[in-house]
Specification:
By secondary structure, the protein is an alpha/beta fold. About 55% of the residues lie in helices and about 10% in strands. It has helices at about 20-30, 35-40, 70-75, 145-155, 155-165, 185-200, 220-225, 240-260, 275-300, 305-315, 330-350, 355-365, 375-380, 385-390, 405-415, 425-455, 465-490, 490-500, 510-540, 550-600, 615-645, 650-670, 685-695, 700-705, 740-750; strands at about 5-10, 15-20, 50-60, 85-90, 100-105, 110-115, 120-125, 130, 175-180, 680-685, 710-715, 730-735, 765, 770-780, 785. The chain starts with 6 loop residues before the first strand and ends in a 6-residue tail after the last strand.
């Protein structure tokens, strides 16, 4: 995103025009010139608020100059006035042939007199004389070249040059000739450009420009701003709510500990303490239900009221809120700055205000605390009734072996214990004892396991099934191995065994191996019982809602922690949200005001025949640039007020500012053109490039100061004998706006080498809308001065 730095321009210095033909009475009624200026308002249309009084152009009919000497005295006696150019229109005395009769107040070195014998003038070729050409304008146009002269002299640089050149003439009175092309854009073009610009700025026209890739979603931005607030210290509740939370946590921990130790192989040998696992599940469900209901009531209690009232209510429930956290945290100004950066970036990318307003309101809604009551559904989601029902009715522990490996070990253990019987008669006796011991271990283990299962894993005991399972273990561990051993010893192995032993042969199984097998059988008997218990518990855990109580307690505690943060930061986040929402309302009012401005515009008078052809696309670009600058400036003004906490009336104040700026802008560009923004207008750096593009499209205007063609000499045919005929005595002053210097240099490059002027000789103006040439010819006729008592 490109960041635009807004600066404030100094006011343009323009020459003040006083037309005594229409303003004599107003000026003569004032004691001082400053009083007259303040009453009239500055500028031709009252649009410019600061004016340079050091240069004044006075226009009057030549016949009235003596009668208006008192008004001229008011001007000349003003301390701020440094130089006056007096334009006398018409003949002072037709009968005696006197063109100019001046009061002596104008006979000084700081007054220059230009005589305009005829406002329309005659075509004149500089260096030659009158041309055989008459320029005709449309009927009713009301256009004359005196207006061109007055417009040109509003530029102080041209004023100074004309005053200096005319002062060097013999009679100190010159007859001006003009060739002026104005860059003032016609009113209908300016109105269309402004309406198109405000429509695009506010609504986007027929399209809505989406956010750029990587741009921040408004809801996500609101959440990010909310997370920037410092997190308060954890709060440990007391009272009824604290007891409910503690009971739920302890029940969950007890259940977790019981489940963690239940699967240990030696667990059946340990004494049972406390309730069984189904009872722990029921206890956990009950405490969770109590915790959930207490939290629901707490959320409703802390929902309403200001901060102090909320804290008092929560203290009564056993919750003491910590103070808001210190250190860096998002506050009202920081939230406004972040949203302002996003907003200005969107305006710079051409996104319409209406779309930005919607996004700002979404951001404010995401930033604003919704109140703890809205978290009640979150409580139900964190600990739903279905989960509590599952905890209250857990399935019983399985009653089988849990794995086929367990009965196999029960068969294998007695068989291994009987292996020493294959040795000596002593081995048979010992083997019988070991086999009985192994069977006893297995049966005893089964009885202990079933007893522990009844205590830890069942709700109601099933004695018949327990006896049946113990009997089944007896059968597996005693009957099957005994039968198998009898068959083994009494069969082929037994027949040859007696003979071999009787003959003193070695036993079929070495003694060491036989006794090792017997020990392994005893060990397998113990392992079988432990494995049986572990597999049963493992299979049972797959069917249990294991871990749910812990997760449900954590989920409820998370809701409580979030509510605590919201309670602590509610006031701060509410202020920040209100500030952001005020910024959105400001943009909304600003958009309405801009649209109203566009609808109220009046095209006014159209362009004159001597106005440069308008490049509409470039005009639209400059006007839109200026109105975007106006929008950005107004938004920043409103944001500054909001940042200071002065939110009341910000939308109305910004709308009023926008109304004043837009009205002044329209008035300014109609009178002064679009090459410069109005005085004190916030400036953006890329405007100069847009103006240069516009200049390059105005070929007639660019060449107006460069061509050596004819001018309109402001005298009539029958007044030629009153002006000098020596071409060497005439002075040519070419001028053009300084902002068009680069474009005019391009025009010079396109001229024929023989006609190429030197741009360094041009007078570059900082104000005015014209380019062209002034042709000053000395007045040959006598100039009469008259001393009046009123001015003595």
């Amino acid at each position: 995103m490109t960041t635009t730095t807004l600066t404030t321009q100094a006011p343009e210095s323009r020459t003040l025009l006083v037309d005594l033909r229409t303003e004599y009475a107003a000026l003569a009624a004032c004691r001082t010139f400053n009083e007259y200026v303040r009453q009239r308002g500055a500028g031709l249309d009252g649009g410019v608020r600061e004016v340079d009084l050091s240069r004044v152009v006075v226009v009057d009919r030549a016949v009235d100059l003596l009668a208006h000497s008192d008004a001229l005295t008011v001007v000349r006696n003003a301390g701020a006035v440094r130089h006056v150019v007096c334009i006398a229109v018409g003949m002072a005395d037709d009968a005696s042939g006197v063109p100019v009769r001046l009061p002596t107040i104008l006979r000084n070195e700081v007054t220059t007199v230009l005589w305009v014998g005829d406002e329309h003038g005659i075509t004149w070729n500089p260096g030659e004389g009158p041309a055989p050409v008459v320029v005709l304008v449309p009927a009713g146009a009301g256009y004359n070249h005196l207006d061109d002269l007055l417009e040109a002299l509003t530029a102080k640089e041209l004023f100074d040059e004309v005053a200096a050149r005319a002062a060097a003439m013999p009679s100190r009175v010159a007859v001006p000739g003009v060739r002026v092309v104005s860059n003032r854009v016609a009113g209908d073009v300016l109105v269309a450009a402004q309406r198109r610009a405000v429509e695009a700025i506010v609504t986007g026209g027929d399209r809505v420009i989406p956010a750029q890739p990587g741009g921040q979603d408004p809801v996500a931005l609101g959440g990010e701003l909310a997370r920037r607030f410092g997190h308060p210290d954890p709060t440990q509740p007391t009272g009824e709510f604290g007891h409910a939370r503690g009971d739920a946590e302890r029940a969950a921990r007890a259940l977790g500990a019981a489940l963690a130790t239940a699967g240990r192989p030696w667990q059946p040998l340990l004494p049972q303490r406390g309730p069984g696992i189904p009872g722990l599940f029921r206890r956990s469900a009950e405490t969770l239900h109590t915790y959930r209901e207490a939290l629901r009531r707490l959320l409703l209690t802390g929902d309403a009221g200001p901060d102090e009232q909320r804290r008092a209510k929560l203290r009564a429930e056993g919750v003491t809120l910590p103070p808001p956290p210190g250190g860096p945290a998002t506050d009202q100004p920081a939230a406004v700055d972040q949203v302002l950066r996003t907003t200005l970036g969107g305006i710079g990318m051409g996104r319409p205000l209406r779309q930005l307003v919607t996004e700002i309101f979404e951001t404010a809604s995401a930033l604003r605390p919704a109140g703890s009551a809205v978290r009640v559904p979150s409580v139900d989601q964190a600990c739903p009734d279905q989960r509590l029902a599952e905890l209250s009715s857990v399935p019983a522990m399985p009653g089988g072996f849990g794995s086929l490996l367990v009965p196999l070990l029960m068969v294998l253990a007695p068989l291994l214990a009987l292996v020493p019987a294959a040795g000596s008669p002593l081995g048979r006796t010992v083997a019988a004892g070991l086999g009985g011991a192994v069977v006893a271990l297995l049966v005893l283990g089964a009885a202990l396991l079933r007893g522990r299962r009844n205590r830890i894993g069942l709700v109601r005991r099933a004695a018949v099934r327990d006896v049946a399972m113990v009997a089944l273990v007896l059968v597996i561990s005693a009957a099957l191995p005994v039968v198998g051993a009898a068959l083994l010893l009494g069969g082929g192995l037994g027949g040859g065994l007696g003979d071999d032993l009787g003959a003193g042969a070695d036993p079929p199984v070495p003694a060491q191996v036989a006794w090792a097998c017997a020990g392994a059988g005893v060990l397998l008997a113990v392992v079988a019982t432990g494995l049986w218990w572990s597999r049963l518990v493992a299979a049972w855990r797959l069917r249990l809602p294991a871990g749910q109580p812990d997760r449900l307690v954590r989920a409820l505690t998370d809701v409580y922690d979030e509510a605590t943060v919201e309670w602590v930061l509610t006031d701060a986040r509410t202020r920040a949200s209100d500030a952001v929402r005020t910024l959105g309302s400001t943009l909304d009012s600003l958009g309405d005001e801009l649209l109203a401005h566009g609808s109220a515009l009046d095209a006014g008078p159209q362009g004159t025949p001597y106005t440069a052809a308008t490049t509409v696309g470039a005009v639209n670009a400059i006007v839109r640039h200026d109105l975007v600058t106006l929008t950005v400036d107004c938004v920043e003004r409103g944001a500054a007020d909001i940042r200071r906490g002065e939110r009341d009336g910000v939308p109305d104040r910004v709308a009023q500012d926008a109304r004043d700026l837009a009205t002044g802008y329209d008035r300014y560009v109609r009178h002064d053109g679009i090459q410069h923004p109005p005085p004190r207008w916030p400036a953006r750096g890329d405007r100069d490039q847009l103006v240069l593009t516009w200049w390059r499209g105005l070929d007639d205007f660019r060449r107006a100061a460069l061509d050596d063609g004819p001018v309109q000499q402001l005298c009539a045919d029958d007044q030629l004998q009153l002006i000098g005929k020596d071409p060497a005595g005439a002075v040519v002053v070419a001028f053009a706006p300084g902002s068009a210097k680069e474009a005019i240099a391009d025009a010079v490059d396109g001229l024929d080498p023989g006609r190429r002027p030197r741009p360094a000789e041009l007078v570059w103006t900082t104000a005015g809308t014209s380019a062209g040439m002034l042709h000053l010819v000395p007045l040959r006729a006598r100039v009469e001065f008259e001393q009046l008592e009123a001015t003595a």
